[in-house]
Amino acid sequence: MKIFICANLNKEKTVLVFPEVVRTLRLYGITSLVEKRFEDICSGLNIDGLLFGTAQDNAEKCDIFLTIGGDGTILRWGKKAAACGKALLGVNTGRLGFMATLEKDSLSKLSSLADGSCKISTRMMLDVEVNSDKGTTRFNALNDVVLFKGTTSKLPEYIVLSGDTEVERVRADGVIISTPTGSTAYSLSAGGPIIDPKLSCFEVTALSPHTLFNRPMIFSVDEPLKAGYIAYENSEVYLSADGGNPMQLFPNDTVSISKSKLELKLIDVDGASFYSSVHNKLMKPLK
Q1: What CATH architecture applies to the domain 2-118+269-282?
Q2: 104 pLDDT tier (thresholds 50, 70, 90)
């Protein structure tokens, strides 16, 4: 078995955990693939038996993706893993690491990769299409798509449609459209409900709506969602997917969001249920 270790070895926390991950995998007969750009760093760590290649080569050759970091690392590599049809396991070195099911002090549980006793959950993803006068931009998201106003912008009015039916028109700082996986991320902070990731649905949560009666809504994935905005004076609105670099939207632009054919397969070697993670990581103070 070959595992592509997706880790930023320029980060101190990652470098502290990386050698132990490699040694533990080797103990169970698993070969580690690493990006060639980190070859000099790895030689300084005195780690033998690594295979180096480009990210694309490693993605094609590996059986499993393994990230070392937090949820942001999983978001960055999850889309690549989904596109390759490979499962992903996250080793948490971040603060919360809600999607990373393995903590750095429990690496012996990597044995379940070798004996096949690990569990796999499938996570829904989004296809996003932005249509503007300049053309069409397409990308995917695992957590969410956020439309939000500029820092000094006047409040725009956001419009959300399910299919061709308008379901929301609200003046707010922004609107979050999330998957069940994303329900425990930004949407949760904005007052949205927690959704079991086994479900397939869209969640729409307004950011600081200027109204007394706005509440989050859940939609079937049978109809795509469409979103746009009406400017007030010189409103500026941006779109970001999974916390990535924002792109500016304009009043005539339309955003279409649908359930993707891509799915992320997340590996769980710890055996904890989704609700155990909710209790242990969201219901207790962060250390």
Answers
A1: 3-Layer(aba) Sandwich (3.40)
A2: confident
- Give dist(CA 90, CA 70) in Å, integer: 8
Residue 273 is predicted with a pLDDT of 61
DSSP string, the chain: -EEEEEE-TTSHHHHHHHHHHHHHHHHTT-EEEEEGGGHHHHHHTT--S-EEE-HHHHHHH-SEEEEEE-HHHHHHHHHHHHHHT-EEEEEE-SS--SS--EETT-GGGGHHHHHT--EEEEEEEEEEEEEETTEEEEEEESSEEEEEE-TTPPPPEEEEEETTEEEEEEESSEEEEE-TGGGGTHHHHTTPPP--TTS--EEEEEES-SSSS---EEE-TTS-EEEEEE--SS--EEEEETT---EEE-TT-EEEEEEEEEEEEEEESS---HHHHIIIIISS---
* Residue pLDDT, tens place only, 205-219: 999 999 998 999 999
Q: How many residues does the chain have?
A: 287
Q: At residue 138, what are phi and psi to the nearest 5 degrees? A: -125, 145
How far apart, in whole angstroms, are the C-alpha atoms of residue 65 and residue 29? 16
Catalytic residue flag (residue 71):
yes
- Set 40, 57, 63, 71: catalytic member: 71
Please give the structure tokens belonging to residue 7: 């880790």
Q: Specify the CATH architecture of the domain 125-261.
A: Sandwich (2.60)
* Residue 146: HSE in the Cβ half-sphere, 13 Å Cα cutoff: 23
Beta strands 119-132 and 135-141: pairing type?
Answer: antiparallel
